[in-house]
Design a protein that fits this description.
Length: 340
């Protein structure tokens, strides 16, 4: 049966009225949620401890070490690291800042850390990002790519004959000075470490071992790393430069016991190593943050994820959502992240 036009009009008016009603209810709910969030934020803000600029906190000992590390970085330019970061003619190493448009003779590398013969490895720089043609060219000439070096450069293994044939303008020796940890250079002849990790290029395990024993070292452990064999050895500190001369050696650093990085966070930001301390001391024993204990409360963490289940027992009254649906999590991932 067909309805009369007047009935259709009546139904339309009722549907419109219902839509207006539910829209109005939704707007009131949204306004109430916003007001509740604002009050909760205000309460958290009023209870929060004074903000302490952790990253601006300075420590004379830390600054001195950082300054000394910078002092061992040789350079042939007066430009700073920040100025060279986007320069396609810059080569950025932990022990050197190199402008390849300037003479390399301006690099004041100590004589004992300069290559005495064929280095066996080189830094090659392009005037554009490394591409497939570059890798194919290396392979065609018999050179081997090892790793990327900023900017637009690569560490490669090659003989002197091969390096002279490569069609690249910027090619420089991978000096022994570039291989060693800055702490070793800083110590000079007063190296106190007994054990060092010497990493070689792929397939060079026996040659690295020979370089170590030839310098009076004793191998105490080894493992195969991504870039090549890594041997831990007891070596006289004054013989490290001899080991670095070996073309098979890629890097030398003090051997340290591996530890969880989480445990290094607190001394890095200079707060108490023990979260239960009644006062906070930095790693030099200095009172920090006005003596406030570390308890983790009144800290707001933003989470952009699948939502967070605000009804979870561990998160009850601890979650604020920008929308009502933000405190509902049908996936579970956001709640998992919130619990970390």
């Amino acid at each position: 049966m067909r309805l009369k036009p007047s009935v259709w009009w009546a139904i339309s008016i009722l549907l419109f009225a219902a839509s207006a009603y539910f829209w109005n209810v939704g707007e009131k709910k949204r306004a109430a949620d916003q007001a509740a969030r604002a009050r909760q934020k205000q309460q958290l803000s009023s209870k929060a401890a004074p903000v302490v600029p952790l990253l601006q906190t300075t420590n004379s000992k830390t600054n001195a070490v950082a300054a000394k590390r910078t002092s061992v970085r040789v350079s042939n330019t007066t430009r700073r690291l920040a100025e060279l970061q986007n320069d396609k003619h810059a080569i950025l190493l932990r022990n050197a800042l190199i402008d390849t448009t300037k003479p390399l003779s301006d690099l004041k590398i100590p004589e004992k850390w300069r290559a005495k013969g064929a280095p066996g490895s080189y830094i090659v720089q392009l005037d554009h990002p490394l591409d497939r043609m570059f890798y194919n060219t290396l392979k065609g000439y018999g050179a081997r790519f090892v790793s990327y070096i900023p900017n637009n450069a690569a560490l490669i293994e090659a003989t002197e004959d091969v390096i002279n044939k490569l069609p690249y303008r910027t090619q420089l020796a991978y000096e022994p000075y570039y291989k060693v940890d800055p702490k070793i250079i800083m110590a000079g002849d007063n190296v106190t470490n007994e054990f060092f990790r010497i990493t070689g290029f792929a397939g060079s395990r026996d040659r690295v071992a020979s370089a170590i024993t030839g310098a009076g070292g004793q191998i105490v452990g080894e493992e195969n790393m991504v870039f090549g064999p890594s041997l831990v050895a007891r070596v006289p500190g004054n013989r490290l430069a001899d080991i670095a001369q070996a073309g098979s050696v890629q890097a030398i650093e003090p051997a340290v016991q591996r530890t969880r990085l989480n445990d290094l966070t607190r001394p890095t930001v200079a707060v108490s190593l023990n979260p239960t301390n009644s006062i906070n001391l930095d790693y030099n024993g200095v009172n920090y943050a006005g003596g406030n204990p570390l308890h983790g409360s009144n800290i707001i963490v933003n989470i952009n994820d699948t939502g967070v289940d605000g009804s979870h027992p561990d998160l009850t009254n601890r979650v604020i959502g920008d929308f009502p649906t933000s405190t509902v999590d049908f996936d579970g991932h956001g709640t998992h992240v919130a619990g970390i």
